[in-house]
Amino acid sequence: MAVPIAVLDCDLLLYGRGHRTLDRFKLEDVTDEYLVSTYGFPRQFIYYLVDLLGASLSRPTQRSRAISPETQILAALGFYTSGSFQTRMGDAIGISQASMSRCVANVTEALVERASQFIHFPEDEATVQSLKDDFYGLAGMPGVLGVVDCTHVAIKAPNAEDLSYVNRKGLHSLNCLMVCDARGVLLSAETHWPGSLPDCTVLQRAALRSQFETELHKDGWLLGDSSFFLQTWLMTPLHIPETPAEYRYNMAHSATHNVIERTFRTIRSRFRCLDGSKGTLQYSPEKSSHIILACCVLHNISLEHGLDVWSSPATGHMEQPEEEYEQMESMDSEACRVRQELLLTHFS
């Protein structure tokens, strides 16, 4: 009697041993060195992710219910940190390339669901003050609640007609708006903006702007580079500094804002699926956005667990259009007054 092929999982077809093959890889059977070199993270971190995501990854589905949360997480980490669906990686954990892809999708969505748990601005007064103190300790810039910038991640062309994702280099990308603290922990990450949008337009349309204009800007500000407009809640460098105080302000601004550039280098060094070294993300803009956000969540969790890779050399190349932006001069007189007061009070 013929068996309907449609009901068979591809792993059954590939290995001929049914769902048992999905559990043949055991974390306790390999060394920490192997886990770090192959999946990018040590054993205890992977166990933490299993506890965190296990319930979501155990949801019964027609095709992936037999794949354990542990195996799904290893498959996803392997992709995030290598940037490719390698057959040998699937072989190592006993699943096919097609199942690898499904595992990445499952883990990505589970992480995205928890993004607000791990990526957010502090709310209690003591933590906010600690945030400002940490930034002040870098270069003497007071009142800083975060540093903001955009970075591009290359994606495949959605279709021939859609030019909204074509950036200044003529490449398809997502323009991702992020804010981090003095340690590189992400406080905000909006990963869905089309690559054709300049940084200032992304910020104008972003939830971050609404958040600061209505809630968080009263006792501090973000630092942004000259691709953004000066706002009462966003301090930018002076285009042409003239006085010693203005030079000191710009130097402190630059040294503090550099944290976000280091954070971008850290993220692409750890998550090679984003750095362009293995090609663009071969997904729709929406799915690519979710993969980027999932990596951002993992970045914060890794810092929470003491896995700081700032000392590691950056590798690969994340597609970045050259910033040929014009200097954005604010017409906001109140914002100019706030910056001038900052100059006089702290840098004169």
UniProtKB/TrEMBL annotation:
The keyword 4Fe-4S does not apply. Keywords: Cytoplasm, Hydrolase, Metal-binding, Nuclease, Nucleus. It holds the Pfam family DDE_Tnp_4. Residues 148-300 form the DDE Tnp4 domain. InterPro entries: HARBI1-like (IPR045249), HARBI1_animal (IPR026103), HARBI1_dom (IPR027806). Transposase-derived protein that may have nuclease activity. Does not have transposase activity. This is Putative nuclease HARBI1. It comes from Haliaeetus albicilla.
